[in-house]
Amino acid sequence: MKRILLLGLALLFVSGAVSAQQVAMYVDEARASWCVMDAMPYDFINIYLFINPPAEGAKCIDLSTVAEYGNYRVFAYEPNPGAQDPILGGFPDDDLAGCFAACQDTWNWLVRGEIMMLSADPVKIYFRPSQDPVQPNMWMLNCADPAEEVEALALTDFYVNSCGPVSVEESSWGAIKSLYE
After folding, report:
1. In Å, how far are 2, 17, 63, 79 from 101, measured between CA atoms?
2. What single DSSP character describes residue 86?
3. Angstrom distance (rounded) from CA 59 to CA 136
4. What does the alpha-carbon distance between residue 4 and residue 105 come to, in Å, rounded to a whole number?
5. Which of 13, 45, 88, 176 could be cross-linked to 97 through a Cys-Cys bond (beta carbons 3.0 to 4.6 Å apart)?
């Protein structure tokens, strides 16, 4: 029993020492939710793209997002006031690369997008690796000296009128029940 307990404590210690560099999308600056329910046509929805830097901090990010389903238009696009110009690319549904003026050592948003819903259909926006063939993964430039590129991991996708995967396959209730018989 002692060995199991010691192994568990060692795993907790090692996992706590591992650097977590993540990207995520949320509805607000408080990171309260990654989904919006009951959005109707002509509703405006904010989407904040956040970074959670590694232990060494982060200065820059390179990633890509994809928007699927739904009917919306990008209404506004605003970089964080602490970001350096220019932010290259677009958000949502495009490649994006940008840097902060100062090293970030805690969660912070890089860009805020605002979409206007044109229907009540579900929308899913998710991260994908950059389309750059030289650097295909999402990455952050940390604040170590010298700076190093570290892979960024997606923490959340963003959903409108759904809080999970959006089904695109037709199915009947009978077909679904037969999977569990």
Report:
1. 49, 27, 18, 12
2. P
3. 19
4. 34
5. 88
